[in-house]
Amino acid sequence: MTVETQPAAPAKTDGGPDASNPASAAQRERQAWMSILAKAESKDLADRIGRLQNLPAYSVIRPAECGSVMVRGRAGGMGAAFNLGEMSVTRCVIQLTGTAEAAVIGHAYVAGRDKQHAESAALMDALLQTEQWHAAVKEMVITPLANVAADARRERSGKVAATKVNFFTMVRGEN
What we know:
The chain has 175 residues and is α+β, with helices and mostly antiparallel strands. It has helices at residues 22-39, 42-50, 115-128, 131-162, and strands at 2-3, 58-74, 81-96, 105-111. The chain has a domain at 27-138. Helix 1 packs across helix 4 (131-162), helix 2 packs across helix 3 and helix 2 (42-50) packs antiparallel against helix 4 (131-162). A four-stranded antiparallel β-sheet has the order 1-2-3-4. Residues 1-27 are annotated as: Disordered. Pfam families: PhnG.
């Protein structure tokens, strides 16, 4: 069983979003960092943010609030979609006020009910959209969190591979 996601849009020839479109590349990059921030452990994210110096001021546009979303699945990844169940999420929206790029807004949705995690992720999303902070946040927050996630995936894959059973059928000499 897999969780349903939106299918990738086919490449457009009319100037729409595709792999060669810089806006599309920027959107994919933002999706990647938002995914890393949302999936990171709250404590790891807070530790990484603590290493950044002189963070700009920000105002909370939409305070962190908890809610639920319906998760949909497909049997075998190909069957008809069905409602798998509800999942708790927390969302937050902030706007930077202490930078030259004061109109920058950061968004975050995180699984669970951790309001501080959502606010921290929204702040990092906003900072990553600025020229002044992008490189530092990517180097000190995003890359280390991505490495932690990759290490966890490798460890989990190793544990799964260790329990793999290979079944085979032997054919007897009967006709």
